[in-house]
Q: What sequence folds into this?
């Protein structure tokens, strides 16, 4: 099933169920900026279709305009956030850390499920082929998700720690894939030696084909971080922000909310805080330190 960007649709839906309910907020706009490249395995065409559909749905229910902007250029998105053109951002943790001032952020929300609040990156190999550590993976073929900068940072930290080499030199070949599920299948069918995938995608592949779990193993993990996250600007009216967030936490109680959350393999929304970025900040700091030492 194709997964459209969950934050985009749920952000629009939450606004449609909250703003009409309270005249106090009339004239205040929920202006969402959505970073396209933060969702590497969803095509832009799918995003545009989803945004158009939900924009039309929203227009039928509200007597005011909600603005949802898709950004290819993260610097433009950061500038618009700083000058107030948008007041809510959605992106990957790394894109937020690299391009936004953390002291300009205020609580937002993120989609989770009951069994796995955060996602993880897992380095997966076929079992019984002599690859049990990152050192034993040297000279093999790696498959990565195209455009996934966080995955590249994690694997680069691993290879530099193991051999002092960046990941492009460490592996014989690096293949960039456009679909997480396809990456797991390529590993299973011996089209690649190693796959760096998200745990949710790996578990889903194992559920669909139990042989995958029996014939593969995880040799390294970067665990417990949000794959994507949304934040309000700190200058947004606090009552307006808190009203939307309060409704967001109970969106699973609405029929349409449950339908959307199920569609995106999520069961509820939780409040996000800047501290949710801490693990990725530490990973990225390690990456920068490694690169700095390599240039000496």
A:
């Amino acid at each position: 099933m194709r997964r459209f960007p969950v934050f985009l649709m749920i952000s629009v839906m939450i606004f449609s169920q909250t703003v009409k309910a309270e005249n106090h907020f009339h004239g205040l706009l929920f202006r969402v900026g959505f970073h396209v490249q933060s969702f590497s395995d969803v095509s832009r065409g799918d995003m545009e279709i989803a945004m158009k559909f939900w924009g039309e749905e929203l227009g039928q229910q509200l007597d005011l305009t909600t603005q949802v902007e898709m950004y290819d250029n993260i610097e433009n998105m950061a500038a618009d956030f700083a000058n107030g053109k948008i007041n809510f951002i959605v992106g990957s943790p790394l894109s937020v850390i690299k391009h936004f001032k953390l002291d300009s952020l205020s609580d937002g929300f993120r989609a989770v499920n009951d069994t796995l609040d955060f996602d993880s990156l897992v380095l997966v190999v076929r079992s019984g082929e002599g690859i049990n550590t990152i050192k034993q993976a040297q000279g093999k073929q790696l498959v990565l998700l195209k455009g996934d900068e966080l995955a590249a940072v994690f694997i680069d930290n691993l290879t530099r720690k193991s051999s002092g080499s960046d990941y492009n030199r460490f592996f014989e070949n690096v293949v960039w894939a456009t679909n997480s599920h396809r990456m797991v299948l390529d590993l299973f069918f011996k089209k690649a030696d190693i796959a760096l995938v998200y745990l949710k995608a790996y578990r889903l592949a194992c559920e669909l084909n139990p042989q995958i779990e029996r014939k593969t193993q995880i040799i390294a993990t970067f665990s417990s971080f949000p794959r994507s996250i949304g934040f309000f600007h700190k200058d947004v009216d606090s009552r307006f922000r808190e009203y939307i967030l309060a409704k967001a936490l109970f969106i699973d109680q609405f029929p349409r909310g449950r339908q959307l959350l199920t569609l995106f393999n999520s069961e509820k929304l939780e409040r996000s805080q800047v501290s949710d970025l801490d693990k990725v900040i530490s990973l990225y700091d390690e990456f920068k330190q490694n690169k700095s030492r390599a240039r000496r």
Observations:
- The first helix runs from residue 6 to 18.
